[in-house]
Amino acid sequence: MTVEWKDMMLDKVAIGPVSARIYQGADYGKGPPIVLYLHGGAFLDSDKNVDRPVAMSLAKAGAIVVAADYSNLSGNIFPQALEVSFSVFTYLANKRAGLGDRKSLLFVAGEEAGGNVAAGVALKARDQMPDALDGQVLISPLLDPFMGTSSIRKAEAIGMRQRWTEGWSHYLSGGGCHPYAAPCLCSRISGVAPALIFTAEDDPLHDETIGYGVRLKQAGVGVRQHVLPAGTGWPSIYGGKSDGAPDWQENVSRHFGSFLREVSVQPQLH
After folding, report:
1. Torsion sign across C-alpha atoms 76, 39, 268, 182
2. Residue 40's closest CA among 118, 93, 107, 134?
3. What residues are paired with 227 via a beta bridge?
4. CB 42 within 8 Å of CB 237
5. 76: closest CA among 107, 43, 52?
6. Are 213 and 223 in contact (CB under 8 A)?
7. Residues 6+ apart with CB under 8 A from 113
8. Is it true that the peptide bond before 79 is cis, omega within 30 degrees of 0?
């Protein structure tokens, strides 16, 4: 499916106008699902309106993807980053921003730092807007501020260890470590929306991604977890060096399409 995009301003968001790039397939169907997509960048990058291959992969599955620039308003600091993102989510849940229709399913998705914020949005949605979120897509979410897993030792080799260390320091510089800021430390994760989770065998974020998926399953949350083989260029999704040419996009699109169909058939999956 060919994916088209346009830039727009979400000017009725409660927290203030938020710029977004909208990705959608040229032949998406009636009542298409809407995905709030949150970009990565180690809590250090702004959106910059650059191409987002993850967002495009989700759009190829038939969704309208709203790549919201949560960084510029928030400075990539917690809790502001979460507040901006949740404000956009609330706007999409209530108004759909003229995208899709009232029957469109609503998802939140993100990779790396954006995956962290997406997981936080899912937790806050459970607490403040039950049933408004139909699913979460976590793509190598950056969840562990202590960076204490075994797989994180690979971060140095792909040029990300120092960057993630600096990113966590920046993100948490607002003070404290609330469970929404580090979802892997949250003691109550039951009742959140069903999750589609991706990582790869050569991903330094593999262990914390898998660990969060296991905890969600243990809490009774519907989880679909996929571990791509090494050599797919996976670390490139968040700026890591990789010897493999990126060929993960089709996997993400295909598995997301299956997840959409499953949630559509079983809206109470969670």
Report:
1. negative
2. 118
3. 199
4. no
5. 43
6. yes
7. 39, 40, 41, 42, 43, 44, 76, 142, 167, 171, 238
8. yes
The first and second tokens of residue 216, run together, are: 């969600």
Tokens of 185: 């430390």
β-bridge partners, 114: none
Quickly tell me which residue has 């469109």 as its tokens.
Answer: 104
- Per-residue buried b or exposed e for 23-50, using 16+ beta carbons within 10 Å of the residue's own CB: bbbeebeeebbbbbbbbbbbbbbebeee
pLDDT reported for residue 170: 96
Does residue 168 contact residue 141 with C-beta atoms inside 8 Å? no
Q: Which two tokens stand for residue 66?
A: 């709203």
* pLDDT tens digits along 44-93: 987 565 678 999 999 999 999 999 999 999 999 999 999 999 999 999 99
